[in-house]
Amino acid sequence: METSTAKYPWLKFYPKGIPYEINPDAYPSLVELMEEGFRNFSGKAAYSCMGKEMTYGELDTMTRNFAAYLQSDLGLQKGDRIAIQMPNLLQYPVALFGALRAGLTVVNTNPLYTPREMQHQFRDSGAKAIVILANFAVNLEKVLPQTDIKHIIVTQIGDLLGFPKKQIVNAVVKYVKKMVPAYSLPTAVSFGDALNRGSRSEYRKPTLSGHDLAFIQYTGGTTGVSKGAMLNHRNMIANLEGQNEWMKPGMSTDGQDVIVAALPLYHVYALTCNAMAALKTGAMNLLITNPRDLNAFIDDLKKYKVTMFTGLNTLYNGLLNHPRIGEVDWSRLKITSAGGMALQTAVAERWKAMTGNVPAEGYGLSETSPVLSSNPVDGTARIGTIGVPWPSTELKIMQEDGTEAPQGAPGEIWARGPQVFTGYYNRPDETAKVMEGEWFKTGDVGVMDEDGFFRIVDRKKDMILVSGFNVYPNEIEEVLAKCPGVLEVACIGVPDDKSTEAVKVFIVKKDEALTAESVKAYCAENLTNYKRPRHIEFRTELPKTNVGKILRRALKEEEMARKAR
Which CATH superfamily is domain 463-564 in? Predict the structure, then answer.
């Protein structure tokens, strides 16, 4: 990549010491990166979950045993697909790293998928094996005949918590809370048995290159049918090398870093920025199994003085509005990373006021492993932007006519770099729609300011057309997030005979005294006429993905169904 600040104005804002380029071939594959991490940090804690810590050395042993089981006992070969379907538990990194050490391709799967969604992903990926939490096994039973899955490994929540906690947790979950519906999977093997058998089997390190497929990471499906983004070992190594350099100014120098892993590891953000990145630094991931239980979440935060936190707007907003958040000690917090959705200025400013730490918002997609850009983590983050491109990464803003937009003008964000995926699995037609040579067309509308910092305006498909004017939901949500009495807000366009579309907002109240009239009055002061919501609906909650991203698509579908009635 050229280093001209005329062409790449963001380079002059790179934190001191961070290189403009990284080496995506620093390791032959992720296996060598893992082995290095296990060796360098053997005695340090790698993960903590429900009060149980697991060291890098223990993780090394268990992942080796699991890999040996997959190879020797199940006969899985390099490149075979294996699905993993569970929330954040100690079993997840064991299954994840074990599968990669066996040379398999990992298919991360949302455990809250319906049977229909599971069937699509399993059939589309051609998964031959699955590691699944018992709580969701009944759904697997329903779709198993329609898949290629031959090998099933079932785990329970407490399996790696040690005696007697394992027995207590598993009994409470199954018999007291009744969270495990009855299922019948006669050929299934327990996770513990798999590890035991693997300990007696031979492990053979596979020969892998950077171009071998590491993950089929399915897109969230928020803009249509979920597609499998193919991420190879080189894609992931490129992002990990970039993250390792970018985060250095904020890394702890007074002990081991403790990273909050509240986002699920099956999501590409936490997969790379939590699970994989820790192998480079020896950090400990504090696994939060159910981040929606904010009371339990805060109890976990109180156990450690966390140094890094990865999350997204709804998560930070929820914590900020919880009455017990003041009990947490933030004195060692050095990095707050925000991604997954737009970080609202009101939330960022409140987080800074509470913790003293400026959130560094970044940007990326499943197709880019995921990170493309980020704000600096040295305290110079610019709230309201997604920062500047990472090392070896280029972004540009393209207009509809195929020309590059002038600085300050909106257009679609195109990206180029070694972390950009190789395409959608078995979907060359969909791949062709988003690739222009080496450039990936993100589908997001953004602008680059005069200093080279980028801002997301909105998704192209979410843009609202009001009487010929473009209205971006992110802007409306950003404004209303600052309206007194508003806890959460989502904005969509609805059909309108006079103006093509009209703006509609859905609001969750923080103050029950909030009214539609007061919202309209606030908008009148802060938004030009065509941007003001014509329709306001109050809700007790908004539809969200399991990660916590608000689903505008679900709200649009509700509106369409309502109109059809």
Answer: ANL, C-terminal domain (3.30.300.30)
